[in-house]
Amino acid sequence: MKNNKISLTSKEVAQPLVTIIIPLFNAQNYISETIDSVISQTYQNWELIIVDDCSTDNSAEIAKGYEVKDRRIKLIELNSNFGGPARPRNIGLDISNGEYLAFLDADDVWLQDKLQVQVHEMKFNNLDFTSTDSKFIDINSNDTIINKYKIIVFLKKLKRKAKLSDVIKSNFIRTSSVIISKKFISKFDENKDFIGVEDLYLWMKILNDKSVRYKYISDKLIKYRISSTSLSERGKNQKQAIRANLCILKFILENQKFEYIKYFYIRIIKLAFIYFIKKII
Question: Is residue 90 part of a domain?
Answer without folding.
Answer: yes
